[in-house]
Q: What sequence folds into this?
């Protein structure tokens, strides 16, 4: 596994491989800004194999793998010191033969398909309109001592722990960010609700890119479930999107997480036709 030195190096490798394989298989493409970020952080690596090029992106808790290969050749992927995630994105009902071939090889190598996620998307104006009906309820909770705050950096770790502990996001789905990158996020990207004793009850996370809120997620601490806090933070989150002129909000949800799917649909989100199978090799 070799360190990827620059975006030009990445482009040249892809260009050279396309001379050998005219239509290479790729499970997912990183956009230039994402690639350059991982390269600058020293977290992008690659292997040249018989089947093509395997890219590894170090996400701290796991490696995310992106493929540029000839699926007809034997696929080889290094065993590393962390979990390895391969996320295969496809349109619903349109899983192509080359993807099926790759997934068969992954299974033979010992990878396990741990889940399938669907992308959800909502137009913020619509989300805000749907949430307005909860405003009076939110004021009732405020009288009981619950309040929503835009979290400062000291709260980020606890919010992430609430979300990970809930199982809504798995440890292999959380993208890596340095502390400095987190501090530069738009104020309100991390939100939470506190009770009258300033104890955190529920947390929410998103990342803003080009007026789109990505990776939208929220979760409640176990002991505060059934306290009616989810609709309240959903109202505050939708209002925050609206006030900050965010156009769309989107995220991924495991298809077997039916309560979350129902909840987000009730809030005005739509399920798209974009799905992703998540394959894990656990060290």
A:
């Amino acid at each position: 596994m070799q360190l990827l030195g620059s975006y030009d190096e990445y482009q040249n490798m892809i260009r050279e491989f396309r001379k050998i394989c005219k239509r290479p298989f790729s499970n997912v493409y990183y956009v230039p800004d994402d690639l350059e970020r991982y390269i600058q952080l020293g977290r992008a690596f690659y292997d040249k194999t018989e089947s093509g090029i395997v890219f590894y992106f170090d996400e701290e808790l796991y490696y995310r793998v992106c493929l540029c290969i000839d699926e007809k050749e034997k696929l080889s992927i290094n065993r590393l010191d962390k979990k390895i995630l391969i996320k295969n994105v496809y349109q619903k009902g349109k899983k192509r033969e080359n993807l099926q071939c790759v997934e068969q090889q992954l299974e033979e190598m010992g990878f396990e398909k741990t889940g399938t996620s669907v992308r959800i998307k909502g137009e913020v104006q619509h989300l805000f309109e749907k949430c307005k009906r909860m405003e009076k309820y939110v004021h009732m909770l405020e009288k009981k001592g619950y309040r929503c705050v835009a979290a400062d950096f000291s709260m980020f770790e606890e919010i992430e722990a609430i979300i990970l502990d809930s199982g809504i996001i798995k440890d292999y789905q959380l993208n890596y960010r340095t502390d400095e990158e987190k501090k530069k996020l738009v104020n309100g990207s991390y939100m939470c609700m506190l009770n009258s004793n300033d104890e955190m009850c529920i947390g929410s996370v998103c990342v803003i890119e080009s007026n789109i809120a990505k990776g939208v997620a929220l979760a409640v601490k176990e002991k505060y479930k059934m306290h009616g806090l989810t609709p309240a933070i959903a109202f505050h989150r939708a209002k925050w999107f609206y006030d900050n002129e965010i156009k769309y909000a989107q995220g991924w949800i495991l298809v077997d997480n039916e309560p979350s799917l129902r909840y987000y649909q009730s809030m005005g989100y739509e399920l798209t036709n974009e799905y992703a199978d998540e394959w894990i090799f656990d060290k």
